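Record type: monomer structure entry
Structure origin: computed from sequence
Chain ID: A
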Amino acid sequence: MGNITGNVFTKEERNLKRFYGDFIGLARTGLMVTKKPQDKSQMILSHIKSNIGPLAPGITYTICSDEAVGDERPYVVFAVSSEESRE
């Protein structure tokens, strides 16, 4: 990665840039999970890199459990694809 001057990055952004530059450069395709900006209880699985084909749309999901009925085991509930994942 080149030297970036004049920009201020948060610790999370610096770590992401370090991860992307150091690790993802070796892979043919890459995925990333982030919290959905409008609803922090939902996550987005994003396809962030591909040199073998077009990027796929992201998938929104939530990790749930049925604690109210005594079942604490987590499970994943998937939603529709998320075009906002590449924003």
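Annotation 1: Confidence is low (pLDDT under 50) at residues 1-7.
Annotation 2: The longest helix spans residues 11-22.
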